[in-house]
Every structure is written in structure tokens, then in C-alpha cells.
């Protein structure tokens, strides 16, 4: 097993019996103390981030990972189905595993899925997605003083703030980082 010194960003390690994605590592050697490695990591099952300090000689278990680009196929209650476009294998993930990702999934949309020891654990979206506006109130004429916005419901059920000129049926680009309107597609 590799030591804490050998751990790098992007690897998945087993810590307290759970898989954790390493987001940042720093090797530190304070003046008269022993060297240690500070690791910022995120629990892949629960999404919580934590900072942990390890002695530089501590051994750690690095889990085997694989990233695949899959296409979203359909949703059935709390289960979301994805298809591998190369092998046509179907993978199902629960709504609990996906979390906020479900607000941006449309049939045929591509996502990157992280597999840890052949089990899908997390889904990464592209930075922006294009979604159709299904419900939006009409803007009031003359209400254009400065950057006035209105709520709009998108095809996935997500409600975002859009400018007054956006109408029902239009396709808009939405940031998957914070759910904000970026423009028309």
C-alpha cells in the first residue's frame, strides 16, 4: 500500500471504511516537528468534505477507479437509468446517490460517472446544460428598469430566475454549478 506521501489529487482512498475522493494534498514539515500530509477529501457516499492530517509514513488503501461517459436514458420513480453508448450496458442509480444532479438530467444528456471498484458512486455534469422552459409568467410591459427577472420552470422541474424576454418553449443555458441562467441556447 502506498504511503500518505504518494497520495495525489483525484485518487480515491478508503478512510474509515468509506471511499473518499482526494481533492487536495499538502506536504508540510513544521520547524521542529515530524512531517505530515494534510489531505482535503470528500466522502463519495454522503458528499461531506473533510480535512485530515496523516503522518507521512502512514499507509493508505487506494481504490481502483474508472470514469465513463454515459447517457441518461429515463427516470422511474427514484431510479435513474444510464446507458453506456459503447457497450449498451444499463446502469441504474438512486435519486439519493445523484442528489442535485437530477435537476439537470434530460434524456440523451451525457454525464461522467465515477466507478469505484466497479460500483457507480458519483456523477459529474458538464458545466452548462441546455433546458427547455415549460412555464414562465409573461413580463409586464414597461417593467424593464434594470435587469428585472422572473421565475421560470424548466423541463426537469428546476425553477430559475430568467430575464423578462424569455418565453415558454425557449431553450436556455443553465450553469450546473449554481443553477443560474446563462443565456439562450
Could you write a compact summary of the structure shown?
The chain has 1 helix and 15 strands; from the N terminus they run ββββββββαβββββββ. The protein is mainly beta. The strands form 3 sheets. Strands 4-3-2-1-5 form a 5-stranded antiparallel beta sheet, with no helix packed on it. A 5-stranded antiparallel beta sheet has the order 8-7-6-9-10. The protein has a 5-stranded antiparallel beta sheet with strand order 13-12-11-14-15, with no helix packed on it.
DSSP strand content: over 45%
Q: H/E order of the elements?
A: EEEEEEEEHEEEEEEE
By DSSP (H or I, 4+ residues per run), the number of helices equals: 1
Structural class, from secondary structure content?
A: mainly beta
**Using DSSP, what is the number of strands?**
15
Descriptive notes:
The chain has 185 residues and is mostly beta strands. It has three domains: 4-63, SH3 type barrels; 65-124, Nucleic acid-binding proteins (OB fold (Dihydrolipoamide Acetyltransferase, E2P), Beta Barrel); 128-184, OB fold (Dihydrolipoamide Acetyltransferase, E2P) (Beta Barrel), CATH 2.40.50. The protein is 2% helix and 52% strand. It has one helix and 15 strands, in the order ββββββββαβββββββ. It has one helix at 95-98, and strands at 12-15, 18-28, 36-43, 49-55, 61-63, 65-76, 79-83, 90-94, 110-116, 119-124, 128-136, 149-154, 159-163, 171-175, 181-184. Strands 4-3-2-1-5 form a five-stranded antiparallel beta sheet, with no helix packed on it. A hairpin with a 7-residue loop joins strand 2 and strand 3 (36-43). It is elongated, with a radius of gyration of 21 Å. The chain starts with 11 loop residues before the first strand and ends with a strand. The mean pLDDT is 87.
Amino acid at each position: 500500500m502506498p504511503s500518505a506521501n504518494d497520495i495525489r489529487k483525484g485518487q480515491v482512498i478508503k478512510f474509515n471504511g468509506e471511499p473518499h475522493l482526494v481533492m487536495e494534498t499538502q506536504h508540510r514539515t513544521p520547524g521542529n516537528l515530524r512531517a505530515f500530509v494534510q489531505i482535503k477529501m470528500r466522502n463519495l457516499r454522503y458528499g461531506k468534505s473533510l480535512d485530515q492530517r496523516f503522518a507521512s509514513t502512514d499507509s493508505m488503501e487506494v481504490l481502483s477507479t474508472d470514469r465513463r461517459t454515459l447517457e441518461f436514458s429515463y427516470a422511474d420513480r427514484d431510479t435513474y437509468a444510464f446507458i453506456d453508448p459503447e457497450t449498451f450496458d444499463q446502469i441504474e442509480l438512486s435519486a439519493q446517490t445523484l442528489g442535485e444532479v437530477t435537476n439537470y438530467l434530460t434524456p440523451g444528456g451525457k454525464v461522467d460517472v465515477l466507478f469505484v471498484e466497479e460500483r457507480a458512486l458519483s456523477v459529474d455534469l458538464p458545466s452548462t446544460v441546455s433546458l427547455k422552459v415549460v412555464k414562465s409568467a409573461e413580463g409586464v410591459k414597461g417593467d424593464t428598469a434594470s435587469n428585472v427577472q422572473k421565475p421560470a420552470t424548466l423541463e426537469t422541474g428546476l425553477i430559475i430566475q430568467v430575464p423578462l424576454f424569455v418565453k415558454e418553449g425557449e431553450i436556455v443555458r443553465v450553469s450546473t454549478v449554481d443553477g443560474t441562467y446563462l443565456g439562450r441556447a
